[in-house]
Structure of Acetyltransferase, RimL family:
Amino acid sequence: MPGPVFLEGEHVALRTIEEDDLEYLQEQINDPQVWRAIGRDRPVNAAQEQSFYEDVVCTEDNVTLMITDEDAVGTVGLNGIDTGNDRAELGYWVDPEHHRMGYGSDAASRIIEYGFQQLGLHRIEARVFEFNDASQALLESVGFVEEGVHRDAEFIDGVYQDVHWYGLLEGEWRKRR
């Protein structure tokens, strides 16, 4: 049974992730278009997906939600919420069958708003690999600014990849609204 809707976007609803979602999440995270884009380098089995659910989804340090249209299409979250410094890292992925439909930017916009308005964050950061032009464009479209590059920071598909770091400050976000 799907979890309750927590945030509504223009095109998506963001709902809680429940144990019934784990099979879908495992299937998607093992899709090469997803695991490459988020920097995974190993397959995820059912026990590991269960651990992700328990160790990430079900903790106070993260807000991880399912992106849904009529069905699940991905996840979005604020990870490593640091209440001492009022910051978190934005993370997301969208099922490859639903790319270029606006789901990622709508979901990111909703959770960014939640982070600044409800959690009182001052800064949200994100990282993206050099080959992921679509994700870089998504971040820039919702107001993120590229702040730097960690050269050859991740080894993906036999090649070291640069990691581009982005940031969005609460004041910048308010000016865009």
